[in-house]
Amino acid sequence: MKYALVNGILLDGTEAMQPRPGLTVLLKGDRIEAIVPAGTETPDYEKIDLSGGYVMPGLINLHVHLPASGKPTVKQKDPKKAVRLMTSNALLRSVAFRVCAGYAKTELLSGVTTLRSVGGIQAIDSRLRDKILSGGAVGPRILAGNMAVSVPGGHMAGSLAYEATSPEEAAALVRKIAQDKPDLIKLMITGGVLDAKCKGEPGELKMSPALVKAACDQAHALGLPVAAHVESPQGVRVALEGGVDTIEHGARPDEEILRLFEERKACHIATISPALPYALFDRSVTGASETEQYNGKLVMDGIIDCAKACLARGIPVGLGTDTGCPYITHYDMWREVYYFHKFCGVSNAFALHTATLGNARVAGLGEEIGSVEPGKCADLIVTRQNPLEDLKALRHVDLVIARGKVYRSPKVKKIEKAQRELDKFL
Question: Strands, DSSP E only, in 212-345?
């Protein structure tokens, strides 16, 4: 199809973006063909009247777990038991696939045209990626991580991650995961907020430096980048020394850590969203213990400190939601963009740039997506209001275009309790 997006205001996704009225965006197939002055004759194009709406690159979510909904919960569930059940027979495996496909569609219809999965069930993520690309399912572009590598007693061990007991086994598990052609390898190097048994332990180091290095070396030998779950300074240091490419979550860095970021050309993926409920909600709402709230605040502060320090040094920072954690849904990427502005002190324009072209560059796709310019993939969204004035404009998307396919007036089913509680912190 050939479309002409008319009567819109362009936000191109670059760091210095300003609203640009008076332009028509021409789409041909899955590409942005040209950007021409308004009023240019386009007889062969179907016109889509944006009626003064703001057209911009689709959002990119760099940290997603597709199997989980983000539904609020008070009682902590057993992920091992849930995954065992979902993979116990062919029927339940097909149900699990459909669940992930439904959540991927929700991501798309909320304005996320590319997502990066960093821990999933078996090879569902890469299978779904391929089905979407072939036109067999509706969803965003997926950079699939599939199963992660953890250690016995480590984060997500036995559910979304295999357990390695030695460097040799870690390398073997990377090779096993690579057989399903993922786009990256995920390591669970430290514990998380809910793994900690006492205050101050949310990022307890679980994976040895030797094991981290073996996994990274094997992944890189196979041409795969490595993302790592880390929530303590010690964990960040071990991850970077071992060769990890992206630090997911993060912690307050010291000078040595910042030097390692620079030396390794690594990036930080900020995920403020999942820590916020534990850190800031009343415990009567989350059901969190005093220890969990304390650790949630520690992790949230560490993520923010890491993002600020990296930005000050010119180290790339990306954004992801860690969707699947309680209260963190598949339609709320806009909140992470808003939190980045609110807590890290960046401008609205820089926050939107980070969630589009910045995230594309972190993912290695900066030449393909992330900005509105001729030759790039036609991954676009349209909002009624200007997000450069208020990022909450991203909450309501009037139009989504993914790889040239148009989704008009997209709607997603929302969780009322999550919306109500999260809105208190806008």
Answer: 226-230, 246-249, 267-270, 317-319
